[in-house]
Amino acid sequence: MNTKEVGELRRRLRPHKNAVSHVYGCYVGSTKQIIGETGQSLALLSEDDADGCLSLLKKALSGSLGRNLMDVAFTTRQVAEGEEHKLLRDLRDCKLKDPALRRRFYERVIQSLDLGEENYLILLAHDAYDVPFRSKSGELLDDSSDTVFSYIVCAVCPMREGKPGLGYLPADNVLHMKTAGQLAAPPELGFLFPAFNGRAADLYGALYYIRKPEFLHGEFIEGVFGVQPPMSAPEQKEAFESALSDALGVECSMELVQAVHEQLRERMELHKESQSPDPLTVTAGDVGGMLRECGVEEERVASFQDYCGQRLGEGAALDPANLIDSKRFQIKAGEITITVKPELSGQVEARVLDGRKYLLIPAGEGVEVNGMAVELEAQPAAKI
User: What ranges in the chain are assigned the alpha helix state H?
Assistant: First the structure.
């Protein structure tokens, strides 16, 4: 899915903009027991309660593609005979109205998910979107449609003490906006099924959401989707950096890393300016080309690409935002850390003076220490 398709569905999950008839919930205790289940008509909820439910579900479609939102791909065999896929498909086809199917889904989530000792709420909703035709100019024509996108969205929300929000009342089995007690926090994870690719249903895909990229909850992906978890954004960054340093060895200089960082950042800036809804990706081959431009010998370039194939998967297409921090360039030397804007990273130089390695930063006018202006005394270069 691309950003426009995700945004189109997010805008659906607002009051009076969707065809959600009911919101279903399952309140799960810290010992993995079901405390209660509920199914409530959205039309009969108060405006605040309905908005609270939709807001939490909408958050399961938020964040960055490739980082918070990850594509899940099903194989042809899974679509034809996989039990995980069949359960999701049956839930969608019955519009979540079958209580036995909902209970099977809740139990699968509970068996798969580990949220420590927190209570949590599983929220489910079904929507049928009469997809409007999009003109060549990108305008949506609401009165012209020949496709209905039927889908379910799920959000798994920890229950915590906090500010006023959506709460669950076990005694009444209802969702209700509360001012005290345990409230539903923003979802830790969630998903959309099926995927909305090409602005139509794609039963070979789903869109998975995680609030924190470093906590992938791979056990949920395996248990609910029946697929191997993809690498998280932090894991991709670590694997990429390891491939670069291991393959290049002594040639992995600061100047080379600066050059690769800058080329990746430039691609990200150009992609942003283009306003393309499709995700930006790079492959090991793309980075290999950058290394060649920097004068790295072919043998080491080939070694880098082999390392990437082993650690990231052959032909893996990665989001550059998962590989570098485009907003800062950080250098660590022992206990000292230097952070500069990426466009200024070239001003930090590595030098050897009197047999010792140094990082040099040109100091012009306006030097400050802890916010206080200071003057630097000129010293001979050899005594730096």
Answer: 3-10, 47-59, 76-81, 83-93, 99-112, 218-220, 233-248, 254-274, 284-293, 298-312
Same domain, 97 and 218: yes
Question: Does one domain contain both 68 and 210?
Answer: yes
State the residue range of the domain holding 189.
3-230
- Looking at every residue in the chain, the average pLDDT score rounds to 88
Q: Which residue has the tokens 């609270």?
A: 52
* Residue 189 shares a structural domain with residue 313: no
Judged against a pLDDT cut of 50, whether residue 221 lies above it is answered with yes
Distance CA 105, CA 82 (A): 14
| pLDDT score of 348 | 85
Give the C-alpha separation, 301 to 287, whole Å.
9
Can you tell me the mean pLDDT for 98-125?
A: 95
What is the share, in percent, of the chain residues with pLDDT greater than 70? 90
Name the β-bridge partners of 168. 175
Residues 187 and 249 placed together within one structural domain of the fold? no
Q: What CA–CA distances, in Å, run from 42 to 20, 186, 279?
A: 7, 19, 34
Residue 125: name the closest of 75, 181, 57, 32 by CA.
Answer: 57
162 touches 179 (CB < 8 A): no
Which of 324, 355, 337, 351 has the alpha carbon at shortest distance from 253? 351
Query: How many domains does the chain contain in total?
Result: 3
pLDDT digits (tens, 9 = 90+) for 64-105: 998 999 999 999 999 999 999 999 999 999 999 999 999 999
**Predicted pLDDT at 383:** 46
pLDDT at 327: 87
Q: What is the mean pLDDT of residues 191-212?
A: 96
Same domain, 274 and 159: no
**Cα 157 to Cα 104: distance, rounded to the nearest angstrom:** 19
Q: Is the distance from CB of 191 to CB of 208 less than 8 angstroms? A: yes
